[in-house]
Amino acid sequence: MKIALTGIKPTGIPHIGNYLGAIKPALELSQTCEARYFIADYHALNSCKDPAEIRRMTLEIAAAWLASGLDPSKVLFYKQSLVPQTFELLTLLLAFTPKGLMNRAHAYKAILQSNSESGRDPDDGVNMGLYTYPVLMAADILLFDTDFVPVGNDQFQHVEMAVDIAQSVNFTYGRDCFKLPQPIATEHSKTLLGLDGRKMSKSYGNTIPMFATEKELRKLVMRIITNSQSVEEPKDPETCTVFSLYRNFAEPDQIQELRDRYLAGGMGWGHAKQELFEAMNAQLAPLRERYSELMAHPQDITRHLEEGSARARELAERKIKFLREIIGMD
Ligand code: ADP
Ligand code: TRP
Questions:
Q1: How far is the CA of 139 from the centre of ligand 1 (A)?
Q2: What residues are paired with 6 via a beta bridge?
């Protein structure tokens, strides 16, 4: 079986864009691959130095994946910081990573540009963790003989860098020290839209959190921006945020039915939103319930992560031993 691996940054409770665009596809992939999904907590340290915040976000994101259906007996579910072999491999890989490669990373270049636009020092606010982020990510991936890396498009460059670094090691020692991973786009062919009709994103503040209460969910759905057409007018489902969300939550016959009502006219936005709310709530309610149960027993979440991390360490240790021999450090 092929190995699929992805890192989950602990950045608070996911929104439904993250659910449909990242969590659900990764869980689907775990049906056909041996999946290794981990909480990338050391990646979060570059920007967050509050221990309580790190702990809280780690629990929340782990609970979100478990509530979404991740089965820790089928998926190797672990915490990066509990697999210290990652950091030994990082040190090894650093010796094979040209500095210039890091200079070309999109995320780093974006910071340089925003600093220069606002007249600050080019490297203002850039720590070495952030600068070498792609190498740590390469270590995460290469440690586990990964075939596929399900990620959003913004992470493709990082996976390609992992391939470059792996090839350099393989070439140097004349053998296949590492498998070459392949990124797989998890993003929906259609990006999920937020309340204001732009892409749903934390940075736009237009999100619907996955575990909003029923009341909050209804309130958010009612806030979705629509045009000012009257009840009588026929409406275009293709350009409507409400309909685009409905598509992701309703059954095919329900979608057709609502489409017909849009085109026929005589339906107000309040009605369309009510339909959307009901379809979303039907899908999200069981997840919300599982999430609250999990968060009420955080020790269970921690136990899952500790057990997974113990198994991950065994696999990682084998790989590190193999590599130490190759580089002459056995
Ligand atoms: P945000 O834009 O809210 O900060 P992230 O960049 O942290 O979200 O995205 C995490 C994952 O969720 C990525 O794999 C990304 O592809 C997916 N994702 C985020 N927003 C959406 C969206 N609106 N539609 C589909 N997928 C999304
Ligand atoms: N950088 C990824 C993100 O921002 C998270 C991540 C860390 C990751 N390590 C990884 C993803 C390894 C895939 C494989 O979303």
A1: 23
A2: 37
